[in-house]
Amino acid sequence: MKKTLLLLTLALIPIGRMCAQVDYNVIPLPQSVAIDKQGGSYQLTSGAVVSYPSSSEELRRSAEMLCDYLQESTGLSLTAEPDRRKDAAIILSYPKERSTESEAYTLTVGKKGVTIEGSGAGVFHGIQTLRKAIGASNTDTIQLPYVTINDEPRFPYRGAHIDCCRHFFSVDFLKRYIDILALHGCNKLHWHLTDDQGWRFEVKALPELAEQGSIRRETVIGANLGIYDGVEYGRGLYYTQEQCREVVEYARERYIDVIPEIELPGHMVAALHVYPELGCRGEGYEVWTEWGVSKDILCAGNPKTLDFLKTILGELCEVFPSRLIHIGGDEAPRTRWKECPRCQEKMKELGLTDEAQLQTYINSELEAFLAERGRTIIGWDEILEGGASESATIMNWHGRELAVEAASKGRDVVMTPMEFCYFDYYQLRDRSRQPLGIGGYVPVSKVYTLEPVPEELSPEEARHILGAQCNLWAEYIAYPQHMEYMLLPRLSALSEVQWTQPKLKDYDGFLRRLPRLIELYDRLGFKHCQSLE
Ligand code: ACM
Ligand code: ZN
Question: Which atom number of ligand 1 is nearest to the Cα of residue 331?
Answer without folding.
Answer: 3
